[in-house]
Known about the structure:
Chain A is an alpha+beta fold.
Amino acid sequence: MKIHVVFYGRLKQDVGAKTAEIDLAQDGLTVHDLAGLLEARYPVLRERLGGVAFAVNDTIVADDYCLRDGDEAALLPPVSGG
Amino acid sequence: MKIHVVFYGRLKQDVGAKTAEIDLAQDGLTVHDLAGLLEARYPVLRERLGGVAFAVNDTIVADDYCLRDGDEAALLPPVSGG
Amino acid sequence: MRMSRWILDTPLQLEPLLAETEDPASGALVIFYGTVRNENDGQPVHSMTYEAHATLAEKVLAEIEQEALERFGVRRCRIQHRIGTLQLGETSVLIVVRAAHRDAAYRASRYAIDAIKQRAPIWKEEHYISGESRYLDGVPLQQKDIE
Amino acid sequence: MRMSRWILDTPLQLEPLLAETEDPASGALVIFYGTVRNENDGQPVHSMTYEAHATLAEKVLAEIEQEALERFGVRRCRIQHRIGTLQLGETSVLIVVRAAHRDAAYRASRYAIDAIKQRAPIWKEEHYISGESRYLDGVPLQQKDIE
């Protein structure tokens, strides 16, 4: 399965990229699993992910949400709009 | 002494005039005295004056304020601006 | 009828007040418009006539502006009230407040409109679709409020 | 970058929102502008860049508008947030609320801006006169806030 990952706000700066692709042989990846994969790839995220929400296809989802092939997963750090 | 009286808001409607002149032989008229003279001239004011403030020369004054010849006394009913 | 910084007999305009109050240190701008609405207590309204004791009203509105600045620490406060006969939707009062942060701006704006309704020597007469007119009940002015 | 009813990458304009929300039954209009100010925590600010998760932000701003209508009984509520790089004094967020009476209008406006700051997926990066830039600390999004 392929997951398209998008980093927002300071995360984009932290990882040095706006997007990333996750490409796995197996299916059944949860958001929690995805977070683990991203931490492994970008160690800088370890201290960040505590305050980060995940949105899949424009909905904020829980840690146990099951990703599907082709999903877009957005990493949303603490917000500061207004 | 002469006092120029101006009626505001519904008082203008009540007495049927925007202004009135008070012309007296003696001096030393207080706002309280003026209210009495006006009630005598316009009985309709009796039920109104409880909520009315008096302004003399653009300052709201107390009942015992001593009027001077030529003063303008404005009768200000309860307000409803905004 | 006369024009001043506070009491006008022509339509109130936001743009000049925004220009007058421009301020790079303000991050919040709260604007309040009071407008003539189409009914009151269930009676269809046709229009509204506002009358002021203009010189005293100007003094009171200037005082309220000053109080807003001092009590809430906002950076700008300007108030204008219109007099004369207004049609539905027209603006009777306009308040512009600028502050570093939003909390002070909202509080000062709210303070200003509440104080205007309590203390400004202004009266309104509602004209109804029925043809009748009525002065609205109001708030008695207090000597201490103004001096 | 895209245009929508809620998220825009061009200067926010009051007039179209006033026209869109016109309402003869409203007697109170409260407008809030958030603007870029010239300092933060004592550091002189040069400009500010706003970024949004646009589709999610639009959903959230539309929800906040709806909540303002329902919770406070106001008659109109429109919110727009700008993205991109803004200069000092430019408007990042604009909220227009119309209600029959002022109390509801003020409360709904305040509710909307507070909710935006808590729940809208929008981030700002401050650029300082010194040449440095910094993402501001923010509020973690909660799943329940949005779903």
